[in-house]
Design goal:
Its EC number is 1.8.1.4. The protein contains 14 helices and 21 strands. The protein has about 450 residues and is α/β, with parallel strands linked by helices. α3 crosses α7. The protein is globular, with a radius of gyration of 23 Å. Bound molecules: flavin-adenine dinucleotide and nicotinamide-adenine-dinucleotide.
Length: about 450
């Protein structure tokens, strides 16, 4: 039987969530995956990268508290073995069992849109009476660099799945992948050089985030080269070498290209419906693809908020929209991914961590909000107890017209778990005057909220 109510193409975290939701609602749902069920996140992105970073953070945290016996360095073999376990040894049978238990029809192969509500999977044609949902994710973007084709470069896949610690590593790109992988491998013993074309890494975050993360990388022995572009790549005496715009060069045993990702819309048949391969599929807030009534998309493929948690949120909206046939639902209702616009949380899992939600000050100004920025150091009883020499900064961005929070950034060790409080305040449009009554427990790092509100003038 190849007739379904819903066909989801792409079995990453986003596709799995969309499919599980429509199946739970009683729709006969097929989930099509060309490689491994679980997607990039499970095997070559979120899970293995965080498993590589966590031991270094634990060691650094222990070192900051006198009296805790700690060793000199990480046990790289044990770290890599734990990483392998978090990547399920790159075996997707557990995910397949989950999908079957969720009531999904699991189909292996490459899905291609071949007509209205029709998907070809390696010669087998599936039909969907209700909807087709595209959740094909993204692929690494390769920079145009003379000579690069002759250099065996790593992408995030090799950087997260390497079986040995590279003796040295050049990382091109100072975005999230670049800084996380630079620190993970440096803390495992690699001599790492990070090349970022801007003044600092993490250009999409508040400036102090990139500055503090660059300091953290340097403290781990990473050579951070900022304000230089790569002008060419080559192999010199067996080493991957980048020529840089200031006339210098950097080289290492491996070169990691961490220069961003692009939506996986090639070889998918989107041209048939007026969309260009390699470009994001444009969707409305319910995930419906512009101009195609039965076609939905969610996750990295839409280019909206390329993060696992946000893609899964969009998938839940799509599932609900299909189940309820929502046409123009109100913002902030279940079939609508309203938060994508102004309340996206993200953690950069470096040491220090960067935890941010909503708009940066610059984004808020660009949107014409009446912006007030409040900055404080994270220097409260909770942070000094947490670690000797604790160093961190916090910023809140307030829209003065409504006296509500529109953005928050925390940078410092172990700030990730503070983020959800900020997300709730931004999504809930909590006013400054009401936030004053949300009293942080003493002595926790969250006491910084009180410092922020006092600095605001309350
Ligand atoms: C190194 C790295 C670390 C990251 N860390 C984090 C993190 O800590 N937190 C976070 O929130 N985000 C993180 N991200 C981003 C996160 O990985 C993505 O946002 C997330 O994987 C997107 O999920 P998705 O399901 O849209 O796409 P994917 O995970 O890419 O899954 C798409 C699936 O579709 C399949 N597919 C593609 N085309 C077809 C086709 N034609 N037919 C059938 N199947 C197809 C693919 O094989 C894949 O399995 C990280 C990314 C990278 C690169
Ligand atoms: N912790 C997390 O949430 C997490 C971790 C890793 C990745 N991700 C997500 O995965 C996606 C991909 O991450 P990414 O770091 O590859 O992309 P990115 O877009 O965040 O960063 C890429 C960086 O490379 C730079 N760049 C591009 N071309 C360049 C060139 N030729 N020379 C030098 N620099 C160049 C860009 O200016 C940018 O700063 C992002 O959406 C990111 O948010 C999230």
């Amino acid at each position: 039987m190849d007739d379904f109510d819903v066909i989801v193409i792409g079995g990453g975290p986003v596709g799995e969530n969309a499919a599980a939701r429509t199946a739970a609602g009683g729709l006969r749902t097929a989930l099509v995956e060309v490689e491994r069920f679980g997607g990039e996140c499970s095997y070559w992105a979120c899970m293995p990268s965080k498993a590589l970073l966590r031991p270094g953070h634990a060691l650094a945290a222990a070192r900051r508290v006198p009296g805790v016996p700690v060793g000199e360095r990480l046990d790289a073999a044990a770290v890599l073995a734990r990483r392998d376990a978090f990547a399920s040894d790159w075996d997707d049978s557990g995910q397949v069992r989950w999908a079957v238990d969720a009531g999904l029809e699991v189909v292996r192969g490459r899905g291609r849109l071949v007509g209205e509500r029709r998907v070809d999977v390696d010669g087998r044609v599936l039909t969907a009476s209700r909807a087709v949902v595209v959740c094909t994710g993204s692929v690494p973007r390769t920079p145009r660099l003379p000579g690069l084709a002759d250099v065996p470069a790593w992408t995030s896949r090799e950087a997260t799945s390497a079986r040995e610690v590279p003796s040295s590593l050049v990382v091109l790109g100072g975005g999230v992948v670049g800084v996380e992988m630079a620190q993970a491998w440096a803390r495992l013993g690699s001599a790492v050089t990070l090349v970022a074309s801007g003044e600092r890494p993490l250009p999409r975050f508040e400036e102090f985030a990139g500055e503090l993360v660059a300091d953290g990388l340097r403290a781990d022995g990473v050579t951070v080269r900022t304000g230089v572009r790569a002008t060419g790549a080559s192999v010199v005496a067996g080493a991957a070498t980048l020529a840089l715009s200031d006339g210098s060069s950097v080289s290492g045993a491996h070169l990691l290209l961490a220069t961003g990702r692009q939506p996986a819309t090639s070889d998918l048949g989107v041209e048939r419906f007026g969309f260009a391969a390699g470009e994001p599929l444009p969707v409305d807030d319910t995930g419906r693809v512009t101009g195609v009534d039965w076609l939905y998309a969610a996750g990295d493929v839409t280019g909206r908020a390329p993060l696992t948690h946000q893609g899964k949120y969009a998938a839940r909206a799509v599932g609900t929209a299909i189940l309820t046939d929502a046409r123009s639902p109100q913002p902030w209702t279940a079939p609508v991914a309203t938060a994508d616009h102004a309340a996206v949380p993200q953690v950069v899992f470096t040491d220090p961590e960067v935890a941010s939600v909503g708009r940066t000050a610059a984004q808020a100004r660009e949107e014409g909000l009446d912006v007030r920025v409040v900055d404080v150091d994270i220097a409260v009883a909770g942070s000094s107890l947490h670690a000797d020499g604790y160093r961190g900064k916090a910023r809140m961005v307030v829209d003065e017209r409504t006296r509500t929070l529109v953005g928050v950034t925390f940078v410092g060790p172990d700030t990730a778990e503070m983020l959800h409080a900020a997300t709730i305040a931004v999504v809930g449009e909590v006013t400054m005057d009401r936030l004053w009554h949300a009293v942080p427990a003493y002595p926790t790092i969250s006491e910084v909220w009180l410092r922020l509100l006092e600095a605001y003038g309350l």
